[in-house]
Specification:
There is one protein chain. By secondary structure, the chain is an alpha+beta fold. The chain is 39% helix and 10% strand. The chain is built from 20 helices and 13 strands. The strands form five sheets. The chain has a five-stranded antiparallel beta sheet, sandwiched between helices. The N terminus is likely disordered.
């Protein structure tokens, strides 16, 4: 059958569509369209409204006048307007309302369980490309260093920074392990004492020769949590901390603090002051001599010490005198001020005192050295007064410690302190004495003449009453040549050179302040210049006479080099 011939309406095969093509007419139905298909709505409202067809145009012409004119109907939902028009058109054509369009079902925008699972599956593809154990060094990145392709391992965790007893972290354990491997100590035991800046642990060293084990003390400074936060006043002005404390790096600051105590202990031990001998320092770990008995028990602090009353005299008085002598030796021999001397930083055993904890000790040049010294005198005096000891005045102890002249060794120190007891003035009014002591503790003491506030006022006060009397020089240093010249002039004037009065109203020879002859060649005598030139010429002439000629010198050098070959 030719495709151009018309087909009867009922003769279409089951597998053929219900339309057939007719020339010059288009497609024509071969069988009637079912009612449910004819009345079926399109898949979407937008598809029905915006499809460019004749039905759409005809349908749009039949919209309400209110909608076309922008009346009240336009204020509603456009979907409702379209559905009402379709229902009216269906009722007019077939006698039944047209089926409503299907709802446009869309996926919710909110995440649900399926959406999360899809994200996990997508990210799982890239999980193997992520390297969580390798990172680029942040310091190099921020410093601008170009390390393309370089990565560094970073296996650090909170467990690496965690501390036990505020001092034992992973780095500290490695330092102790290296000390054990080097033979500095053999075992590390428990804590002996704990403080605000460090913990002290006991250790044992087993000698290779099989002798009795030696006890050691290991002082480990706190680096993670710094309880001791008042280091600034000890560091400011200290020449060993010229750049100041590194507040951004606690470990670096604590390392410098440990080095400072190591050097101070060296000074005390070299001066013969009883203290633990420093043995080894590594970062913030200090190994030193153990102050205790052979069984490993440390000596008690002075606060916890018990003294037996063997006689009528107070047993604490000799201890007080011994401590004053140590303070003077510490100031004059070691050039240090303890700055935290109290019954807590002194150990006692068999009538002997041991000084510990000298990390905060400062030198004389420190701006607050004299303030720290007065604080130490106050702490020592308050403790021994509670023990019933008749203590000296703070001013007398200060002058004794800072005096330039005086003994620095025993037993002369004890004898000098006993003389202070004998020569001290009697106390007439306790209230006035207490006021004077408090004024002295808070008074400004100049360390140099530049710090003297009013020299004219101090010149009218007797030297013995000045608060800085002990720091003034009692003699004037004179050069030997100046002294000889002064003695010759004094002999001509009829005075002696033994320190007698050389001028009226003064005990010091004023001739030492006279200006000498002017210096420079223009001030020299002409005859002396002529004589000096003649002497120099003769010396040069004598050297030229003994000089070897160059030709002879070359021959000698040539012959010596040939012999060597």
């Amino acid at each position: 059958m030719s495709s151009s011939e018309p087909v009867a309406p009922g003769s279409a095969a089951p597998h053929q569509p219900p339309y057939t093509y007719q020339p010059n007419q288009g497609y024509a139905p071969t069988e009637p369209i079912p009612t449910e298909l004819a009345n079926a709505a399109p898949h979407g409202v937008d598809e029905y409204l915006w499809e460019d067809s004749d039905d759409d145009v005809a349908y749009s012409d039949e919209l309400d006048d209110d909608y076309l004119e922008g009346g009240e109907g336009n204020s509603g939902d456009i979907t409702k307007q379209v559905n009402r028009q379709r229902q009216l058109q269906g009722a007019a054509n077939n006698g039944a309302p047209t089926a409503l369009p299907r709802s446009n079902a869309q996926k919710p925008k909110a995440n649900n369980s399926n959406h999360v699972d899809d994200l996990d599956s997508e990210l799982a593809k890239h999980a193997r490309k992520l390297k969580t154990d390798l990172i680029i060094d942040d310091d190099d990145f921020w410093n601008g260093d170009d390390h393309t392709g370089e990565v560094k391992d970073k296996d650090k965790d909170k467990a690496d920074r965690a501390t036990n007893e505020l001092v034992m972290d992973q780095r500290t354990r490695m330092i102790l392990l290296k000390m054990i491997s080097r033979g500095i100590v053999s075992e590390v035991h428990g804590a002996i004492s704990t403080g605000k800046e460090a913990n002290v642990y006991g250790a044992v060293l087993d000698p290779l020769d099989g002798t009795r084990p030696l006890h050691r003390a290991i002082k480990i400074y706190k680096t993670a949590i710094l309880v001791f936060k008042d280091r600034e006043r000890y560091i400011t002005g200290e020449h060993r901390f010229k750049r100041g404390a590194n507040k951004k790096n606690n470990r670096e600051m604590v390392k410098q603090w440990a080095e400072k105590e190591f050097r101070n202990l060296k000074r005390l031990h070299a001066a013969g002051i009883p203290c633990p001998e420093p043995l080894e320092l590594k970062s913030h770990v200090l190994v030193m001599e153990f102050l205790g008995n052979k069984r490993g028990y440390a000596y008690p602090r002075l606060r916890d010490a018990t003294l037996s009353d063997e006689g009528t005299e107070n047993p604490w008085r000799p201890v007080y005198i011994q401590l004053l002598g140590i303070m003077r030796r510490l100031f004059r021999v070691c050039n240090l001020v303890h700055a935290d001397l109290s019954e807590y930083n002194i150990l006692y055993d068999k009538n002997k005192l041991y000084i510990i904890d000298v990390s905060q000790s400062v030198e004389h040049e420190h701006p607050r050295a004299l303030e720290f010294l007065r604080m130490d005198i106050k702490n020592v005096g308050d403790f021994f007064r509670r023990k019933g000891v008749d203590t000296l005045q703070d001013r007398a102890i200060f002058d004794f410690i800072t005096a330039i002249d005086g003994p620095v060794e025993e037993p002369e120190l004890s004898e000098a302190i006993e003389r202070l007891y004998e020569t001290r003035p009697s106390i007439q009014d306790a209230a006035t004495e207490e006021v004077d002591v408090e004024v002295f503790r808070n008074q400004f003491i100049p360390r140099t003449l530049d710090e003297v506030y009013d020299m004219e006022r101090d010149a009218k006060i007797p030297v013995e009453q000045l608060v800085y009397n002990s720091m003034l020089a009692n003699t004037v240093s004179v050069k030997p040549e100046a002294a000889e010249e002064g003695s010759e002039e004094d002999s001509e004037d009829g005075t002696t050179a033994d320190g007698d009065d050389r001028s009226e109203g003064s005990e010091i020879d004023q001739s030492i302040f006279d200006k000498g002859p002017p210096r420079g060649k223009k001030h020299e005598d002409k005859d002396e210049k002529r004589q000096h030139k003649q002497t120099v010429k003769e010396e040069k002439r004598a050297k030229r006479a003994e000089k070897i000629p160059k030709a002879k010198k070359k021959r000698i050098i040539a012959t010596t080099t040939k012999k060597r070959k």
